[in-house]
Amino acid sequence: LQVDFEDIIAEPAGTYSFDGVWKASFTTFTVTKYWVYRLLTALVGIPLALIWGIFFAILSFLHIWAVVPCVKSYLIEIHCVSRVYSICVHTFCDPLFEAMGKCLSSIRISTTKEV
């Protein structure tokens, strides 16, 4: 994020302060921004880096050792279920639909257009 002095403190056109005041304000803003950022980085940045490192390490651990094995196990189990389901469909539904197809295959539909 780029924050410049002119973006924060801008004098409208036609209104200008003394040059010394403007330069002192610019210097104060720039130095304060620089040192407060460094201070906050030193005080808060290092602990937050530690916390985020621990968080992503736990997330990686759970993904590698819990999520992926559970998904693989689920896929193996669902494969067995899908085979049983396929056998049931072929055993019960195929003969029914084949018989219905033979019964209904002799139906012929013709359309005529009347004027």
UniProtKB/TrEMBL annotation:
GO biological processes: caveola assembly; cell differentiation; negative regulation of endothelial cell proliferation; regulation of cytosolic calcium ion concentration
Keyword line: Cell membrane, Golgi apparatus, Membrane, Transmembrane, Transmembrane helix
Single Gene Ontology MF annotation: transmembrane transporter binding
Signal peptide residue numbers: none
Membrane topology per record: Peripheral membrane protein
Membrane-spanning parts: 35-68
GO cellular component: caveola; cytoplasmic vesicle; focal adhesion; Golgi membrane; perinuclear region of cytoplasm; sarcolemma
Main subcellular localisation: membrane
Source taxon at top rank: Eukaryota
Subcellular location field: Cell membrane; Golgi apparatus membrane; Membrane, Caveola
InterPro entries: Caveolin (IPR001612)
The protein's role, per its UniProt record: May act as a scaffolding protein within caveolar membranes. Interacts directly with G-protein alpha subunits and can functionally regulate their activity.
Similarity-based family: Belongs to the caveolin family.
PANTHER family for this protein: CAVEOLIN, CAVEOLIN-1
Protein name: Caveolin
Gene expressing this chain: cav1
